[in-house]
Design a protein that fits this description.
By secondary structure, this protein is mainly alpha-helical. It starts with a helix and ends with a helix.
């Protein structure tokens, strides 16, 4: 989990880039922004998947999550983040 202020800022940047890239741009931006942080890529991917299931914008968030996966997300961590995304969506 992104706990430090720096990690939260990097997570927000990763998430923002992935969402923009999901509109049809190239992957290189997400790879550059991630700075090798497979954990934060997994967090961004999992939260995107879990928090937007069944929503009208689900396809875009799935695409953004796939970009994070393609950029090197820790695949083992994604299921836990999907559950956290579902939890957060349910609490909202």
């Amino acid at each position: 989990m992104a706990t430090s202020k720096r990690d939260r800022a990097l997570l927000a940047e990763i998430t923002g880039v992935a969402r923009r890239l999901a509109r049809g741009h190239t992957l290189t931006g997400a790879e550059q922004v991630a700075q090798g942080r497979a954990d934060l890529l997994a967090e961004s991917a999992g939260l995107a998947i879990g928090a937007h299931e069944g929503n009208p914008d689900e396809a875009r968030y799935l695409q953004a999550a796939q970009l994070c996966i393609d950029a090197g997300a820790d695949l083992a961590a994604i299921p836990d983040w999907i559950e956290e995304g579902r939890r957060r969506a349910g609490a909202a």
